[in-house]
Design a protein that fits this description.
single chain, disordered N terminus, 383 residues, alpha/beta
């Protein structure tokens, strides 16, 4: 055969080729085939927060990222606390499959194992929340979390810890706290290991979910309480029952959020969707920290200037007493719970290295701030 010859054996007739192409593109016998839209996989979620709290908004932010990143193939529907179960019952509902997942904090599961609180409200060892999350990602924290949830407690749960929280206030009081002795006998709300810290300082502690705190203060069931931040505290109504807020504390200096999934539901997902759930938590972690700076600072100013809230710095006497209480609590928990000791040892080794680097490297912002804004800075008053 010459170079320009055409073989009918290796090249099918034009009519047959076009017919095959038509079938491949969804057109047959002149009629277009209607493509069926794939139904999204829907995960039924609940947060541990009231609908009006900014924390519930963070849960919705994470769900929105997952929904968008999956191109609509995966959808998380988020309900507020109490829609299906009480806030403190969330992890059991997820483990049993009553819910596909949820959003909360590890400190809420402190009653199951004291080590749970180390993944949300651990001792003050110099780390901030972002450094804590670095330990989770690169210091062995995630592996220890998985071991606790799936091996020690045998919970059918997969979890991610994300969302660094700033140092939490000591809380809301009837009058400024001037020394540690004033905490003795006080009916006080907190959660996690912080319960033991305040008990060691003489307080009478009651752990309540976020939505129940202000009503309890209003009825006199609590003398004082802490929750988390300026925006949550304002939205939940703390300024309506107290006008004194004590800032800076060692009871919860490095807390983060927790995202939970039912393990069977999670394992059934395609690999790319699992990757989306994890990557979305990292994206939401950064976005949340930026939103927090924006919103918390606004609400802090609003409460101070428009709602008559007086902010005070927690006295050093109280801070030193907290550290003494931490030592007592940590020593007790180490003896009671070998896994607690295992996790804390890992955190301490990480903190010794990374906090040394951080303190030696990061410049104090106060000199720069005072240079530019010194005449305008109000700051918390000393009690």
């Amino acid at each position: 055969m010459g170079e320009n010859a055409v073989s009918t054996k290796s090249n099918p007739p034009r009519r047959k080729f076009l017919a095959g192409a038509a079938l491949g593109t969804g057109v047959a016998a002149g009629f277009p085939m209607i493509a069926r839209a794939q139904q999204p996989i829907t995960l039924r979620w609940q947060s541990t927060w009231p609908a009006k709290d900014i924390f519930h908004e963070y849960a919705l932010d994470y769900a929105k990222k997952v929904n968008e990143m999956s191109g609509g193939r995966l959808r998380i529907d988020v309900l507020p606390a109490g829609a299906v179960v009480r806030a403190f019952d969330l992890i059991d509902a997820v483990a049993k499959g009553t819910l596909d997942g949820g959003h909360g904090v590890s400190a809420y599961w402190y009653g199951k194992n004291s080590a749970f609180s180390l993944f949300g409200t651990g001792p003050a060892v110099g780390m901030d929340a972002n450094n804590f999350l670095a330990w989770m990602a690169y210091g062995g924290g995630q592996a220890l979390y998985d071991e606790l949830v799936q091996n020690v407690l045998n919970l059918d749960v997969v979890g991610f810890v994300y969302g660094p929280m700033p140092t939490q206030p000591l809380g809301w009081f009837k009058k400024p706290v001037q020394n540690a002795a004033q905490l003795k006998g006080l009916k006080y709300r907190t959660v996690g290991l912080s319960i033991d810290v305040f008990k060691a300082m003489g307080a009478s502690v009651n752990a309540l979910p976020g939505g129940e705190i202000v009503p309890a203060m209003d009825r006199g069931l609590l003398d004082a309480a802490e929750f988390n931040n300026a925006s949550s505290d304002r939205l939940l109504g703390f300024p309506d029952v107290s006008k004194v807020c004590m800032l800076q504390s060692y009871h919860q200096p490095a807390e983060a959020f927790e995202i939970l999934f039912n393990r069977k539901r999670y394992d059934a997902l395609p690999a790319d969707m699992k990757s989306i759930l994890k990557t979305a938590s990292e994206a939401a972690s950064a976005d949340m920290s930026w939103k927090a700076i924006h919103r918390y600072s606004q609400d802090y100013i609003e409460m101070r200037e428009k709602q008559g809230v007086r902010f005070f710095k927690t006295p050093d006497d109280v801070l030193r007493a907290q550290m003494g209480a931490w030592s007592t609590v940590v020593n007790e928990k180490r003896k009671e719970n070998p896994f607690f000791a295992k996790v804390l040892d890992s955190q301490m080794a990480w903190a010794r290295r990374t906090v040394t680097w951080s303190m030696d490297t990061m410049v104090d912002p106060r000199i720069a701030y005072n240079h530019w804004f010194g005449q305008k800075a109000a700051g918390p008053a000393k009690s």
